[in-house]
């Protein structure tokens, strides 16, 4: 098969019921799979009864986002994988417009569409917007979203362009590239794994693109809500792990040291908000990162080509002190 659309599901029957019809309707030239991460709801029975045309892969346990996709994609033979969150509504031509671009440029290994907010459809959505970037301190931001400020979509970012990372909410990737790089880092479980994978493939000279002519609408926070302490733990730990794997040795330890300090400063907002569990999650994330260092040492990138593509200024300074809220004010 040429294209496999793969939805990873965990207790997401309600999302499947709501969004799977749009995927089936607008993915005529692809095979649709649902990989179930050992759900405890009746997702499997629902799929068999309501969508018999969908291929179901039952995983033995909940491997998380990263491990779940790794296990599922081992069982699929295709030219292109399209990793799609269960809480995404797709639109007409969302698939073909990107696949055509990948067919025409073998240097592009991964891509994403424009991601808009399902609940506020004229605004970009947090997880990816119109393409992801990193600043020199390795904080992620997007074309259309800086921290929690999501811009209104007026077509200002409709130009296709090379980006640093593509969102895991809707990730197009060549199957041979995915498999040759070992897929996602399963140790991440969830969050930041797509940034890490894009960084690794860019280190080897591949390109990552956003093609905004393809549009999808994402609910976001469908599995772990924004205020979930476990999500806080994963984000802080995995960001540090990603840095350790992909930053050149000469600047690695200064950046890690500075990031540890900034993590501590940023956790003070949880104190202000009264969410003590999130503060504890940051502390646990740091110690979990220390425990991962032997593993990370063995899995550091061999080349660091993509480091030169980082945004050379601090997004924290520009956002919180300069009050910049739009990507176009950062990178005209």
Question: Could you please describe the fold and organization of this structure?
Answer:
The structure is a single chain. The chain is α/β, with parallel strands linked by helices and 332 residues long. The chain has a domain at 3-218: Spore Coat Polysaccharide Biosynthesis Protein SpsA, Chain A, CATH 3.90.550.10. It is built from twelve helices and 14 strands. Strand 8 (132-134) and strand 9 form a beta hairpin. Helix 6 packs parallel to helix 7 (229-246) and helix 7 runs antiparallel to helix 8 (249-266). The chain is globular. The model has no long low-confidence stretch (mean pLDDT 95).
Please describe the topology of this protein.
Blueprint: E1 3-9, H1 13-25, E2 31-36, H2 43-50, E3 55-58, H3 64-73, E4 80-85, E5 88-90, H4 96-104, E6 108-117, E7 120-124, E8 132-134, E9 140-142, E10 145-146, E11 149-150, E12 161-162, E13 170-174, H5 175-180, H6 193-203, E14 207-218, H7 229-246, H8 249-266, H9 268-273, H10 276-298, H11 315-321, H12 327-330
